[in-house]
Amino acid sequence: MTQQYILDLLYLIGSITFVIGLKMLSGPQTARRGNLVAAFGMTVAILGTIFLYEDPHGNTSRETIKLGIIFGGLAIGTLVGWMTAKRVKMTAMPELVSLFNGMGGACAALISLLEFEHNVHDPMRIGIIMAGMIIGSVSFSGSIIAFMKLNGTLKKSLRLPNYNIINAVMLLLNVAAAVCITWSGTDQMHYVLLAFVLALAYGVMFVVPIGGADMPVVISLLNSFTGLAAAFGGFLYDNQVMLTGGILVGSAGTILTVAMCKAMNRPLFNVIFGAFGETASAGAGHSVQGSIKDISITDAAVLMNYSKKVVIVPGYGLAVAQAQHVIHELEMILEERGVQVKYAIHPVAGRMPGHMNVLLAESNVDYGKLVEMEEINPEFSSTDVVLVVGANDVVNPAAKTDPSSPIYGMPILDVENAHHIIVNKRSMNAGYAGIENELFYHTKTSMLFGDAKDALTKLVSELKSM
Amino acid sequence: MIQLINFLGEHIEMIYILILSIFVGVEVIGKVPSVLHTPLMSGANAIHGVVIVGSIIVMLNTDASNILLLSLGFLAVVMGTLNVVGGFVVTDRMLEMFKKKPEAKK
Questions:
Q1: Based on the domain organization, do B8 and B53 belong to the same domain?
Q2: Residues A384, A393, A402, A451: which is the catalytic one?
């Protein structure tokens, strides 16, 4: 009994560290320590389970072979996880988070599959097992698809005709399968496997139609799904650390998902059911009058060189072109010449909220130079040059002026208040939202066409020669 | 129905934990600057890796001669560990970059 109490106490420590860790993760000063605190609690919970866990029905045994397999699994997982996480490029980080999330979901699904047999006579427990399995499987296959979409293996959003109806039917089938298995009290494993495959298929169908730019929201959502699956595991084993850890992530992940949607002014419903494509084509009919003005590398360099204050607006294009190091170089040269440089960070710039900050931090940009939207917006009127690199929708004035625009109401960076605007873009193609941007036709705006990394490198060498 | 009530009654402490944890999760995340959304998502991702505890329990309760169950359990442990270790390490890497900056400059 004492052994059980010690384990309970260790789980208590684990749960507390998760809460404290999450709390500390929400402040820039404490975030890193918070992560370590949570990791410490996790280690305590894992080691405690290995050495102290006893099943209430006395099924637990610690043969050398089993301990060997557990430690072998831990070693392999640690080695591979560590190496991948250390080596991955910072631009590829969102898809890695998605991949790790999928692993957690698969782990939850496997646990449910393995526990089914032992619980056939207890419908409540079967219900819990089925819920954990379906949510875990959906999270697993969904995360793998999100991973493939983000790393470019899967480029197109595949949309079957009436995919919303197909998906709804699949979801119903999933629920029906779970209810039937729970209700009938069947001990047939192949029914469970069928439900498992159905859930995997649903996860694929769920994510496949969603566009690449919406992936952060999807990953965040699947993240809370996995949390939920872990929490069901907690119920199954009466295990408090699994329950608290899972539910914390479940609720925090949901809040985070909503926060991301809010920043993009996209109701979660539209992200999932893809209403975006339709409204976008409706808004695209509204064409913009005016002409485009080109600017040469030299002119852009001169303009910035003789400015007092330059604000850089980095976007998705910067991340794709991996131009975060060049932009830092540009910033340093300008600073040397006495130009004040700041970065305006839109909440949803990049591939994930906060992704831009991580990317720029990687190339040693001073944290204090990254200014959030609310703070930088009043500063644009005193800014000489705004350099927009690979961003589009986040600087589209239509969000403020055109109620028919699909992005109407989304908070944007008020770059049009600056004296000059230089926009670096690969082409005149519309942004992610598929709508024209009248900013590009503004009299103050000049376009600097070309790949972000290319154009910025040229700009830097031009500035150096001045 | 009776089964459901019995179940809830037997697990009433777990239900309390569940409900309070939901509120704690919401409160704790409430005021995160958007700058930290990505590391936070990644950190939360590592925390739900606690599901690995379940996979260890499965292994400990499995008959040591059942090769199929052992290998599936092994797979679960590996994947759970990937989630935990990968999640924490990648989060640390992101946050490391944030931290270095002010010190280097000032």
A1: no
A2: A393
